[in-house]
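A reminder before we start the practical. When you read a complex entry, don't treat the lines as separate problems. The point of joint prediction is that each chain is placed relative to the others, so the output describes one connected object in space. Small molecules and nucleic acid strands, if listed, are placed in the same frame. In the example below there are two entries. Take a minute to note the order of the lines before looking further.
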Amino acid sequence: MILLDGVSKAYGSFTALRLIDLSIGKGEFIAVLGPSGCGKTTLLKLLAGFMKPTNGSITMDGEVVASRTTIVPPERRNIGMVFQSFALWPHMTVYDHIRFPLLYHPYSPCKEKWEMEERIKTVLEIVGLQEMAKRYPHELSGGQKQRVALARAIAPEPGLLLMDEPLSALDAELRMEMRKEIQHIHRHTKASIVYVTHDQNEALAMADRIVVMNNGKIEQTAAPEVIYTKPNTEFVATFVGKCNLVPGIWEGERFIPKHFPHEQWLDAGVSVEFKRKGLYPVRPESWILSEAQQGTPYGTVSFVQYQGKEIHYTVQVEDQEWTVYAPIHAASQFHVGDRVALSLQMPIKEKEAVYL
Amino acid sequence: MYPEKSQSEGMTGKSASFSLSFSFSGLWKMIGFLLIILFFVLPVFRLIIISMTEEDAFTLSHYSDVFRDIETWITVKNTLFIVFGSTVVSLILGIAMAWIIAYVNIKRKKWMQLFIFLPFIIPSYITTIAWVQFFSSSGPAAAILNLVPGEWPAPNLYSMGGIIFVLGLSHYPLVYLMTVNVLKKIPPELAQAAQTSGGRKTLIFRKIIFPLALPGVASGGLLAFLSNLDNFGIPAFLGIPANIRVLSTYIYEQVIGFGPSAFAKAAVLSVLLGMIALTGTFLQWLLLKRSRVIETVKNDDKPRVHLPKAKRRCVEGIVWVFLLFTSFVPLLSMGATSLIKAYGLPFKPENLSLKNYQYLLFSDPKAISAVSNSLKLAVLTVSLSLILGTALAYIRYKQPNRWTKAIEMFVTVPYALPGTVFALCIIFAWMQPLPGWNPGVYGTIWIVMLAYFTRFLVLQVRGSYTALTQVDSTMEEAARISGATAVVKWRKILLPLLLPGIIGGALLVFLTALTELTVSSLLWSAGSETIGVVIFNYEQAGFTTYSTAFSCLIVLAILIGGLAFIVLEKFWLRKVMKQNDPA
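Here is the predicted structure of the whole assembly.
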């Protein structure tokens, strides 16, 4: 159990983190998601112990490891870490990399030499590098380096595993493969994981809970499907779900879009912030495009991007541009300049939901 | 905005993440800071004070005396002429060589580079002796000119032109080094982009390459300028016999020839010379700061100018002839002189013997004692700087703040000052550090030791600092996350990775201290002569065969040491870094 209580970090006049409250359960996989500069790396460095918070405290397993006045340095914490750049030591073999934390980590499970050999073997098996033990970093591919970095981090069985954008240095295909690898490791180690990323797909795919951060603050903390379908703030809606923020008027549970005054959209769990601002977050795939009928409001298709499994349209509606993802097998396809009517794929109503 | 991604992580991120790994109490910080001021800065103030006092009272009379003396202005004029002339020579050679090595598709560039850097490891006074032998009446130059019909006297090196020639050749590697780095860092896409925009070759050079390379070229030029200004050996060997004085030799003559009464005049001249040098250093620092923009881009070693085979061979030939002519030929003629029984005899089998070497090694105790003195000095200087310099570099790297920046500046001062000026500072500072207290280092080898340590420490700081910047900070972070304490972290991770950089710095300190002449020529006393001083004294006394023989021994020792280092480095890259290609 890890607790962050009102943690802030300032560099001179710049505040990187403001009043972060967060609890991380045992074995929980937390993804910290946000754009660059949002403070997520600072948060990770605080958890690792590379720096002291300006305010607030961090507690790990009941022990205060960091506060304004005290700090337990990284080498005495029960943690492991995977770096974005892998941070492999060029003068050590794969075997040496795994042995290093077993020798020096304060929570290392191995006392005897044979225990260490056993553990190295197990870890090599987990990451699938049995054949590579004698290799040096420069003799490994990107994916293999990543596996060594993972192996080194999990070898001493730390209670908390920190990952700093571990997949961003890999190519797209390898990233997909390594996602599974990390999930596999998570299941195996039962360690809590804090996984920092700016890629919402990674966060949605792997995490038990996502912490969305912006400007040094937490915007929302929730399970992936909640973050995706019920964003709390404008930032979460646009950053994670790529939502269109449609302006209009809220009348109780009903929303009347400004550009389509005859439509009425139902509240599908829209947060108070949107209601207060007179906005309705619409994800690109929630739109239904159809040919515009005479006399009804319409938009004009300004860009079309064929994506294989779907088509991305940009539709100009008066002064606003909305993004629409239409399935490839939709009834009709449109071209630049076409006039289209937009309607909303209504969430299944309560009544109907019972049937399904 | 706080740099979030580690690629863009600059000094702020580093300092923040390590603020606790090297925190020592304020008191120790204070003591360390004061000691650095005491050793590195105070001597300079002593010099300024002495130039402005007469029997403990403030006066500017020394300045007015010096400025009224016609000799001062002749010396200043000579200095400017020689320094600018030799800097132009260095710039032309350096830029041409850098452009060829960086961009043209010639072969064996690594070997060429090795020869270009030779003047870095062979002290300039030895090069001077070699050139003198090359151009001497019985040397190879005269022999070649004799074959040409007509009267062609060998050029006289004991002249302004001679000094400019040797200085320019000795310092063009500085221009080369700075320029070649910048040229390689200019992304080839920039020129290609200009080409696709319709730019002609000359236009591209004028509008793209040259402006981008300018900070590097200018910075190299300034370095050459400073080295020409600072150099003592070349104008001393070539200028003093011809009565051509430059500021550095003029100060030397004041201190040596006229005793303590001339100290004030020497101090005034030193303040003048020091100010010119520090201004140059400051300008160079500014330029380097501005060229930072392309510093992060990686080197592109691929050739960009593809010459057809015949032309390529031709360029290669010219480069090799130049390199061999400027490095080996003079050394060979020096070697030839050292084997001659009596100076002036022609180079014929019956005139050859090893008796000069025999004299040096067995008869004259001065040579052996000089080698032992210089070795002691170099070893002590290296050991001290290795520890203190690396520690300072580490502190500077981990805590990039105003204090550490000031410390870096302070330790640079003794090196930035011309050697003669700094030697004078050391004399004034340690003759009587506090009124009425004489620690008795003046007149012993210890004052040379002190001077070497303070002057050369910055070389180690820079070497270690560069090594530190080349090891990613995550290497260290990963070790700490894995539970490594400070001792384990240094022993298992940092030292193995930093070693070649640190050793490189130490080797530079060692070589510089071993063959140093300028500072020791002012600080030596009977029994504490260094190698440089002994060679200088032989040369002054006209024992050319001894000075050439001794120089040959030193060059041989340096070359063997250099080769050993290269072999060891290759070994290290293979065995420790496990690299098959030590590129």
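Discuss with your neighbour: Chain A touches chain B through 47 residues (CB under 8 Å). What might explain this?
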